Protein 1
Amino acid sequence: MLLPILLSILKALVALVKGNRDETTPVNTSQAAADAEALYKKGEGKVGTDDDFFIQILTSRSQAHLAEVSKIYYQKHSKELEKAIELETSGDYKNILVALVRNPICHFADSIYQAVKGLGTNNRKLIRAIVYLSHNRNLVPEVKTYYQKKYGKPLNQDIANDTSFNFKKTLLAVLE
């Protein structure tokens, strides 16, 4: 049981490293509709999930295309594509596929919240999110706005309250 999951994780990571995701092409609505229906048929619409198909679609289509696929999937099947993936997969493989489908702004704001909520800090998760944002500076204002709206307090405040010393100064500097 573990080996097929590990193979799926490896396939997804290899597909991502190949960098075949085209972010420049405008969204083709008919292709998005076809992808939404195919994902349903290869996932929820049958027993078992065609992991190779999910990997191929989710690692090769643009973020904008996947957003359209998600919208159409919900319209046709009354379920979020993200939720369908969560029900059809598990563990790190699920996390990879969900991250590919989610809006990056929501994903990184939620990741930071998960890293700082409760007792202690998940430093690895927090660092991973902040490093990504440091390379994608244009997302920082939107992540901050989304975070404030969803969690009711400023992102910088949560990070400042949950970290200390140079670690805190470094994280906050990246977010400026």
Protein 2
Amino acid sequence: MGAWELVASTITEELVKRGHDVTLYASANSVTGAKLRSIAPYPIQEPEGVPLEEKLYTYLHSALVFEEADQYDIIHNNFDGYPLVFSKLVKTPVISTIHGFSSPQIKDLYTRYNNTSYVSISHADRRNCPEMNWVANIYHGINVDNVPFGAESKGYYAYLGRVHPTKGVHLAIQAALKAGVTLKIAAYLNENDKGEMAYWNEQCLPYIDGQQIVYLGEADEKAKYELLSGAIATLCPIQWEEPFGLVFIESMATGTPVIAFGRGSVPEVIQDGIGGLVVEPDNMEAYVDAINRVKSLDRQAVRHYAEENFSIKHMIDQYEETYYKILGIDPNL
């Protein structure tokens, strides 16, 4: 969990490095080089103390930004649609990165607030609501230089993400069993969600034997890259129209190719035969075959592909250009 927060943090820290005056609105225990403004003392979903009421802190957090809007040239929203209800009450331009559509009805909110500007994270995701005021398509970027390169694999395949049917962890397990390979799973399991727990207990847990199918729990940053860099490939048999897939570029940055069903952003983000293998959706026979074929890909070429297409510099260059466009500023003056 935390992909949206990671992207927001990455954008913030790089803008600070480039000399921009940035204020980050996040939980009080956040670590940042920007000025920090907070309502919530710690994350809502992962409380360190008394659990925080999600709706209450969502509204308080969003409102604080707009109460102080006249201090800023531009507000960059990475918090879904919630803050946009305040956007017509201020003069400060608002730009939102849409990290996927959280519900079908969220489109009604986005189109109602077309007074603001929207950035898509894949052209595929734009198709969910083409009538929105899209101003740019900007792929996520990561600091590839800080990602360990796995020149040689350690003989296993990896799954990284969360335990949810749409992410296809159960299919990754079945594909690994059919291919006769070892699969290591690092995933967030929401034990408070009855549906996710039922899915885990019925479709995943019975196959985890600690030898061929290994569950590692949730991975921190270091463990994540250790897992990915040592894998032959990362298995992503997704069952939904993926808006972007941060794990795709994290894996490719280590030199580890990705095997994914060609849904949503996948054909945009993973160049078939270069960054990994794109498989016809739901074709498990082809997916198992890809597990055997993926070893022929050049790991150095996989990493180079990530460096060329998904660097922080490339991402922030585009965000700066978009900010200037919205503000009517010529950056060369």
